[in-house]
Amino acid sequence: MDEGNTSHEISRRDPAWKYCSLQDPNNTNPVTCKFCGKVTNRGIYRAKEHIVGGRKNVKGSTKCPKEVREETLAYMQKKRAKLFNLLEKMIEMIGEKNVIQVITDNASNYVLAGKYLMAKYPHLTWTLCVAHCMDLILEDIGKLPIVKRTIEIAIALTGYIYNQLGLLNLMRKFTSQRELIRPAKTRFATSYLTLQSIFKQKRNLREIFNSIEWSDSKWAKEAKGRRVAETTMMPSFWNNIVYILKVCSRLVCVLRLVDHENKLVMGYIYEVVDKAKEAIQKAIDGKREKISEFF
Ligand SMILES: [Zn+2]
């Protein structure tokens, strides 16, 4: 039921698709407005907010015709009412007195429905799904240029090693059979694990590319191989990894915790998130310009 980037968005039933287009059919987050060319970044919902205008999340469209604005607004209101009715029906079904908390993800229409629910049932608490929030924060961090670039280099490094069987065997010899984690999906959480596993093998990786086995190999003569070898010798590459790991380690911990435990006390999560914030502040210690990149 995520309004962000799921099935019904891809099915294009939303009338706003008449006025918007995707740049990349496989990525439903950046949406281009056909009237003014503005690209919004959080799926069709944010694009609709742009069309309707007057929202704090996004600048309104100046070139959008009045009829389109009204049509889109009506559709959004209808959908929101439907969502609210659905949640309301569920609460009535369970019994108003038995429901004390409703947890939803943080797509804007859920946020609004949650607020309406709290107004209607004052004893009810509505909260965002922490796992979803943390996921989004990490995805955003993954989009920062320095982080994105470091991950790309790391993926090239592991990809190169794992694509040459001989080189892979050489690596296993140097790492005593320890493997590097290869990102399975384009999710930041797995990229994080890749960086972590590369960092653990920093010394061994450097030793491989300084070894006679390497310099005598055919890979050392390939441009791609030389580039990969150079990467492992670059202090900036390792410094960036350390920096990313420091900033994200606590957040990833929280994500894992909320993703896998189902009996968590809310107060405990607040404490963990607070600790994470403290740890991040300590990690970036004094580098104000860097912390502002993140928050
Ligand atoms: Zn526009």
Can you give me a brief rundown of this structure?
Residues 78-154 form the DUF659 domain. The protein is mostly helical and 295 residues long.
Q: What descriptors fit this protein?
A:
mainly alpha, 295 residues, 14 helices, disordered C terminus, three-stranded antiparallel sheet, 2 domains, binds zinc ion, two-stranded parallel ribbon
Describe this structure in words.
- With 295 residues, the chain is mainly α.
- 64% of the residues lie in helices and 7% in strands.
- It has two domains: 7-128, no CATH class; 130-295, no CATH class.
- Helix 3 (66-94) crosses helix 4 and helix 12 runs antiparallel to helix 13.
- The longest helix is centred in the N-terminal third of the chain and has 29 residues, at 66-94.
- Residues 33, 35-36, 38, 50, 61, 63-64 line the site of zinc ion (ZN).
**Looking at the chains present, what oligomeric state does this protein adopt?**
single chain
Distinct bound molecules: zinc ion
Q: Low-confidence spans: pLDDT under 50, at least 5 residues?
A: 1-10, 291-295
What is the helix tally? 14
- The Cα radius of gyration reads 24 Å
Strand pairing plus helix content: what structural class?
A: mainly alpha
The biggest beta sheet reads: 3 strands, antiparallel
Spatial order of strands in the largest sheet: 1-2-3
When the domains are counted, the total is 2
* N-to-C series of helices and strands: HEEEHHEHEHHHHHHHHHH
First-last Cα distance: 28 Å
Number of strands: 5
In terms of topology, how is this protein built?
Layout: H1 7-10, E1 20-24, E2 27-33, E3 39-40, H2 43-52, H3 66-94, E4 101-104, H4 108-120, E5 125-128, H5 130-143, H6 145-163, H7 165-174, H8 188-200, H9 202-210, H10 212-215, H11 223-233, H12 235-260, H13 266-284, H14 288-294
Parallel strand pairs: 4-5
Antiparallel strand pairs: 1-2, 2-3
The structure holds zinc ion.
